[in-house]
Amino acid sequence: MRGAADRKYIAGVVMGDGMVYHRAKTGYEVKITDKNEAYIKYLADLISAVYGITPRVAKDPLRNAWRLRAFKKALYLQIKRDIEWAKGEPDSHVVGGLYDAEGYWNPKKRKLAFTNKEVFIIKLVSQFLSGQNISHSVYQRKKGQYSWYVIEVHKQQALRLMSILDLRHPKWGVAPP
């Protein structure tokens, strides 16, 4: 297995844009969905290098996105362990993976935002930001029956945070390593 940084990064991405399932009929599954084909292929290669299991990559026509899937119990169990480990020790790799999955940059307002509906993930990211002395605001948004939380970081604080995080998604203007 490769380094702890890659394992924590993958755990962050899975917590943000992925799912780990166990169903009696279909077995074990790890799934990540993203609109960027190159990024999904990068994640497939990274998972293969880190865990020794190569996931399948396919276009999801219903969501206009790309989907990475693996049906191996060993990968399911290891990623579940890595997610628990990442929750207990959030760092720039975990939070970078989360921002790659659920974050966005508004260059006009120079605002970095992160959205998620899970309170524990919002608390995890907020605690990390506080530990880095990054000023941020947290609020809840609602639209109809749906609600989610937003963390916003503005201007120089946002630029400082982007330099701290392990960001690998092409949307940030960086090429994956």
From TrEMBL:
Gene3D superfamilies listed in its UniProt record: Homing endonucleases
Pfam families membership: LAGLIDADG_3
Species for this entry: Pyrobaculum aerophilum
Full protein name: Homing endonuclease LAGLIDADG domain-containing protein
Domain Homing endonuclease LAGLIDADG: 95-161
A GO term, aspect molecular function: endonuclease activity
InterPro entries hit by this protein: Homing_endonucl, LAGLIDADG_dom
Domain of life, per lineage: Archaea
